[in-house]
Amino acid sequence: MGIGTGLEDHSGIILLDRGQAPATTEVCLLRCSLLSSLLLLLLCIHETEQNSYCQQIITERHLAELEELADTQMQHPGRVSFKFIDKMQLNDSICYVKAAFPLMGKILERTEFKENSSNARKMQMVRRMYDHINENVDPCIREEDDEERTLSQMCFKEFTTSPYEMLVLVKDFFQDIKRLLQNQETFEKDCSRVYRRTCLGPRKAGSSPEQRRKEPPAREGRQEPLIYITVASVVAVLLATGGLLFYKYKSRVLERPLEDGGCDPKEPERRALQGARECSELETQDL
Q1: CA distance linking residue 262 with residue 240, whole number of Å
Q2: Second label for 136, Cα 20 to 30 Å away, from 122, 160, 177, 254?
Q3: End-to-end alpha-carbon separation of the chain, Å?
Q4: Angle CA 180–106–102, to nearest 5
Q5: What pLDDT, on the 0 to 100 scale, is given for residue 76?
Q6: CA–CA distance from 79 to each of 14, 82, 118, 163 (Å)?
Q7: How is residue 19 annotated by DSSP?
Q8: pTM of the entire structure?
Q9: Measured over all CA atoms, what is the biggest interatomic distance in the chain, rounded to whole angstroms?
């Protein structure tokens, strides 16, 4: 009987020769290899579709609509205030987009135009575009984790500009996102270090003890009360010493024998004012 054939024992169970083991192992390895390749292919397809989806969300038409919206507000005399991120301060385009993206949503919500007007329809289109960016299962801009979110809030600044300047900022922000997505940026970068380095500088109030060690000017300021206390202590000692010396001098004056007898030692002030003349008059009266 040749190698690799099945054998049947008296119990009716089919037994396999050892020669079949290598063939079974090769089949398993082949199946695993095919499965891994299939999974890898599916991941590549998903990533390609995701990149294609994100790259097509912000179009040139959206940017043109935003530019037209800004142009309609060039002569608007009013001022608007809003919270946003200082792009120049952060100096990191990826972290700038991640930190400012939630704030942009609030700006779009607050920006209103006359109902059913051309500007209102354009703004509604921009809002839908904004919502599409992260509505997919895998968002185009990865949401910040808890640490990043806490630190990025330290980068928030209050801006007060004209409506035109605000809308130009909105347009430039989406243009930055479009450029990054075109370069297949996934926004998976951890920006905690960037926020900590650029946004946790010296603050006038509310700084933590770790923070105070990094602020030499603040330490110099805290030395001022100690200097004031030291000066006050020296002045108090000098006053106490002067008072003691004056008391001793006063006691000696009171205890000193009077050269002109008959003067009342219990009335030093009167004796000092009237002097020897008064004492002479008292002696004359006694005689």
Answers
A1: 36
A2: 122
A3: 169
A4: 40
A5: 87
A6: 89, 10, 22, 6
A7: G
A8: 0.56
A9: 169
